[in-house]
Input
Amino acid sequence: MANSVGEGLDRALQQAVTRPIPKSAGAQMRYLVKQMKGTRAVAQMLRISQRTVERYVKDQIRKPRPDLAGRMEAEVKKRWQPQVRAKAKKAASSTDGIVVDVRARLGYSAPVGTTDEARMRHLTVALPPHFAARLFSAQEQGASDAQLRKIAAEGLKEVYFQNRGTRAGSLEEVHMLDVQNIEFGL
Output
């Protein structure tokens, strides 16, 4: 379960991979060294010594500490099968769109006389491709979670609240507050 939009997008892309990541610590470390073109960069990223990285690469150390094992696995997952991830992003951004499953307090800004009180909702909505493109583009540019949440809220406004322009035309802005869970599907 993801509480941030960025985590949800990363998890959706991880579902697109076709092969599992390397299991052993040595194989994971060798993969990271190959991707980052050197042991020094890997050592700095994982906050360990360069010599320790070299020992993992040579299988002189086989069992990492739990915190290091978690960091290694996260970094490998982040970089695993980049072409497959890029293809999934492209498909979501051009033709397929993205499905958002969110449980949060949703409210909206509207003209006087409407009930715009935020309330807890659980929605599963298919967003069109241009929202997927905006989400992935903003994530790549380092947007904050609040900015990503705003883009997702705009998608919910267009698709769910306004039903693609057929109702609630005077609705100004949707607010996504207190996100309990947000997941994405490609």
